[in-house]
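Task: encode each sequence below as structure tokens.

Item 1
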Amino acid sequence: MNVKEISNGILRAVAIIAGILLIGYFLYRIKSVLIYIAIAAVISLIGRPIVLFLRRKLKFNNTLAVIATMLLMIGIITGIVALFIPLLVQQGQNLSLLNIDAFQSNIENLYRQATEYFGLNSTDIETSIKESKLFSKLNLSFIPNFLNSFISILGSLSIGLFSVLFIAFFFLKDSKLFEDGLMTLAPDNKESRLKKSIDTIKDLLSRYFVGLLFQILILFVIYAIILVVFGIENAIVIAFLCALLNLIPYVGPLIGGVLMITLSMTSNLGADFSTVILPKTIYIMIGFIVGQLVDNFVSQPQIFSKSVKSHPLEIFLIIIIGGLLFGVAGMIIAIPGYTAIKVILKEFLAENKIVKSLTKNI
């Protein structure tokens, strides 16, 4: 190998690295557009079964079926916004005006009542708490900050809502555009396999995302009934947030449980701990556990077995790996991404023993 070949190799490597960096920078700069496209893709996958139903059962033409589906989904989104946004805004405003110092004082009183009820040595505990200044160090402002941030996200999303719906419309109407673009990159002898993979991925992910909607709906109904029965203020908002947090695998239910119990306990800080706060909290905790049992043993098995068709152990490991690599976002996209990879591997590496074992149910 002479000097010229070495220099050419170095220049080629530098050019490749520079190209990758430029592409990465470009994608970073248009991250909002990529988010809109991703949300539109999910909406189109959810709406796809409706379009197919209208076309096959009711004999709608493709354009009319897509328009009817989009109108239905816009109506559902509008209804959710009309129902929840005013409640979220009110909750955020109430908490943003909350006297944090007074709230911390009430929490300390609640803690004192709890220690007295359970027969603990409250004097020693209170002395230790005051000496450590635990409650003064506890920054409870994260509660209004969290809800206000959530409202801000919804507000930002509403700005791009037209873009999302516009993109989703064409994903549904001209679904072949994306496929045709991929086909131009595939060798002629691989086109049929690639097309089959795309169709399979669409079917599996459509069932998966529709299943997630039903999962959230079931949890929301259970949580809302529990909170309304026990007279918790802003029960609908709390139930909606806790059900929505369930989209984050494993971590989301824990956060939702802490949020529900905390907001439930602090909604009656002036009441007696032993006769009001503790019994109500226990019942709400039992209701939350019942909701999680229904989700873990009924909803999730149905979603995973009938949509992504993966073993629970596979799902667990993939979610953990996704979380380690990409954080919370990785945990959320782990299952759809893994499903797409499995389908592609089955089509192109079907004879491999490992691939055959992993994709035997697809």
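Item 2
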Amino acid sequence: MTKDWFASWFDSPYYHLLYKNRDEEEAEKFILTLVKHLELEANTKVLDLACGKGRHAKTLHKAGLDVLGVDLSPNSIASASEHTTEGLKFAVHDMRETITDQKFKTVFNLFTSFGYFDDNSENLRMLESIHNMLEENGLLVIDFMNANKVIENLVEEEVKIVEQVHFNISRNYDGNHIFKTISFGAEGRNQKHTERVQAIKFNDFESLLSLSKFEILRTFGDFDLNDFSEETSDRLIIIAQKK
């Protein structure tokens, strides 16, 4: 059986190499601003869903929360687990599945970790799972790209060189998904991976969340929590409450 693209690519060392220079300071500032806005009390139990190597989970813990970070990638969780401590745990987990023995006050799904699938049935399955894992009136925070702006400003071709590896990157939009194809030579062979993310816009999220019994409380358009604009915002950040 062929692995989902995200299961194989996110577990590759070259995925982590390509994205190694992400802005850690910006990410930490965003999380701390978000936690303050949500007024989460110390030791509140939260879930970082699709946590990668745990950079957001570590900051959530630093903010005083009791954090479980989960991700489908065993390599990412192995790296994140080096930071395990009281109130900060990690586990391999598919975000479409319910963690049946725990409940959370807030679930965070950050850095465009949504819409990896072929159709909305999988998105609904994921949201139903989140709904099941939340406490009564619990919150869901989704940090997604602003698909409108990404499509309008799509960089079709670029080359990134990281530690002597030349990553040739191409992008296209087919009306449903945004594709990012990454080709490079490594280990004596040519390799190619394609990231495929659904171009989910605000009205799409409204429909998905309503069907999944969530109410949208607030939207933001950037990591400083300024108002969302479909035309100009870099991000679409949604805070929704379990109904």
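Check on item 2: The longest strand covers residues 134-145. Helices lie at 5-9, 13-18, 24-38, 55-62, 74-80, 120-133, 147-152, 202-211.
End of task.
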